[in-house]
UniProtKB/TrEMBL annotation:
InterPro entries: Pyridox_Oxase-rel, Split_barrel_FMN-bd. PANTHER family: 5-NITROIMIDAZOLE ANTIBIOTICS RESISTANCE PROTEIN, NIMA-FAMILY-RELATED PROTEIN-RELATED, FLAVIN-NUCLEOTIDE-BINDING PROTEIN. It comes from Faecalispora sporosphaeroides. Signal peptide: none annotated. It comes from the Bacteria. This is 5-nitroimidazole antibiotic resistance protein. The lineage of its organism: Bacteria, Bacillati, Bacillota, Clostridia, Eubacteriales.
């Protein structure tokens, strides 16, 4: 890292990763080896990243051929337009994607994803959606091999959004 004073601890990096809304998943293109990045919704459990995807498509083709990934996210930011500057926090993770094959684990991860991005306490409707969708998608887990983060806050950092 070029600016060592902005480096944060691994625990701080995990906190940012766990709280960021979205991330970018970078894979190796199966066709030509070029980089391929796609925005993702995700959750982190026990320091493992979980994502869901369709059973077909470029992202899945790439991961089948080469499971190496890089995941990046930006947490909170505070713009200073008059200074052409920003306070920020960001994280970079590397790992290897693995298919989740256990149906129970897939359903658990879908519940956690729905808790993060959906309405609180979805009840019977949510369970029906999960039960109906679990076999129509892939769930991938990415055990973190490396994680690094950096941040700069010149003013007090904004509080994290309230959890539902």
């Amino acid at each position: 890292m070029r600016k060592k004073e902005r480096q944060i601890t691994q625990d701080e990096a995990y906190r940012i990763l766990e709280n960021a809304e979205y991330a970018t998943l970078c894979t190796v293109n199966a066709d030509d080896g070029a980089p391929y990045g796609v925005p993702i919704s995700y959750v982190v459990k026990d320091r493992v990243i979980y994502i869901h995807m369709a059973k077909e498509g470029q992202k899945l083709d790439n991961l089948k051929k080469d499971p190496r990934v890089c995941v990046t996210c930006v947490g909170q930011t505070l713009l200073y337009p008059e200074q052409y500057s920003t306070d920020f926090e960001s994280v970079i993770v590397t790992g290897r994607a693995e298919f989740v094959t256990d149906r129970g684990e897939k359903m658990e991860m879908l519940r956690i994803l729905c808790d993060k991005y959906g309405l609180p306490d979805g009840g019977v409707f949510l369970e029906k959606k999960i039960e109906g969708g679990v076999d129509r998608m892939e769930i991938m887990k990415i055990p973190v091999e490396t994680i690094s983060g950096k941040a700069r806050w010149r003013k007090p950092k904004p509080p994290l959004p309230a959890q539902p």
